[in-house]
Amino acid sequence: MSATRLLLGAIGSVTIVAIGGCTTPPAPTYDLVIANGRVMDPESGLDAVRQVGLRDGQVAAVSETPIVGTRVIDATGLVVAPGFIDLHEHGQAEESYRMMVRDGVTSAFELEVGTADVAAWYAARERGQIVNHGVSIGHIPARMKVLGDPGTGLVPAGIGGSGTATEAQMVQMEALLRQGLKDGAVAVGFGSAYTPGAPMSEIERMFRVAAEGGASAHIHLRGGLPGLNETIAAANAAKVPLHVVHVNSVAGDAIDGFFAAITAARAAGQDVTTEAYPYAAGMTEITSALFDDWESWPDEKFGHHQLVSTGKRLTRVTFAQARKAGGTIIIHSRTEAQTRAAIVNPLAMIASDGFIEHGRGHPRTSGTYAKVLGRYVREEKALPLMDALRRMTLSPAKRLEPRVPAMKQKGRVHVGADADLTLFDPATVLDRATYEDASIPSAGIPFVIVNGQVVVDAGQVTSARPGRGVRAPH
Fold first, then answer.
1. Alpha-carbon distance 180 to 472, whole Å?
2. Which domain CATH number covers 271?
3. Is the pLDDT of residue 20 over 50?
4. What is the torsion angle, in degrees rounded to the nearest 10, for the CA atoms of residue 214, residue 400, residue 206 and residue 364?
5. Under which main EC class is this enzyme filed (predicted)?
6. For position 357, what pLDDT does the model report?
7. Taking CA atoms, which of 32, 150, 285, 447 is between 20 and 30 Å from 261?
8. pLDDT tens digits for 146-158?
9. In a domain, 42, yes or no
10. What pTM, to 2 d.p., does this model score?
């Protein structure tokens, strides 16, 4: 080798050493990195320690080796799961969002009652919320509007529930439902239990409107097991995908029969799904048609009802007073065995049916997901963790995907998915809210991320409002 080449080699060698001695950390590649967490993805079955890189609101990397981000969250000991998707959340305002997000919810949908004006509903929230949100066009509010119901709450307080619609009124309801679907409603909501004046022929007729729009029908049905069978038959005739809300609430002691009927319908090729919440008590408005027969109740039945505004159990006298004044009541009507049967059944998605206002409501708003994870998964070992997560994330997303393509990127942890993630400690996660104080947040959920932004940071809600309206193409 010539002297010149030796000299160049030496200079090159010195140059390399000099650069190596002055190395600086590589520039951040991701906006946020979640490091060393146990990533659980129900779609792929991934259950392993990974590094998750987020960029521009999406999952950009799921890596076995370290990666660099502008911020790094050390998730050692935590599960990194898709953000929980709640298909049944009435509390569509800041107060409820602040509670549900600390329970791991990143997308909240009002699909049972819905709204009569879809465009206005989304417009009212377009400045950004804590979580993603969406709504159905609702048969209940459409009926209330068309029939002139005097109620100002979620459900009818008079003719909207008990009245019989004329042909002209049903045409008006159909028009409202079609407009809502045109405006991007996620689904069509029903509550035959709250509209006893609507025969099944009316429900089936509105089911057909939902089917025309490629939407699923989410229904709080009436009539126990015979009512379920009638509803399944009407949905089959209308060729509409059917979702039975809170099966634990509508089934009561017929819970096994409900699941058997749903299983049989699915085996026959019908698209039927359901959901449950992990509490033995329900909650609704005291003026609703559910209580039209209250005067015939035996005295002991009133004690099963608890007035939300005071936390006190009712008597015949105080029930009558509350019925006149209005408000919400908690109904202690089921057993733990009935609740548990619904939660452990793999058919039931998890959904809260939540609502909280002025610090008062039902603990399911604040604790549904943490209770399933803490009590039924960890303490009782009644269902596997991955299956619980599937029913909180992937299954709800898939329920909505045929009409709402945006849901194909939620409920998963893979490259390209929306960066909606919930980080929880499987050893400590648990609900803490009570029937007397529904405002106590869940424990063991230190970080929640919505569209790539941290909305719960070390257990505290941040000022970020990245939540967007989720709706069908319109």
1. 10
2. 3.20.20.140
3. no
4. 180
5. hydrolase
6. 85
7. 285
8. 999 998 889 999 9
9. no
10. 0.92
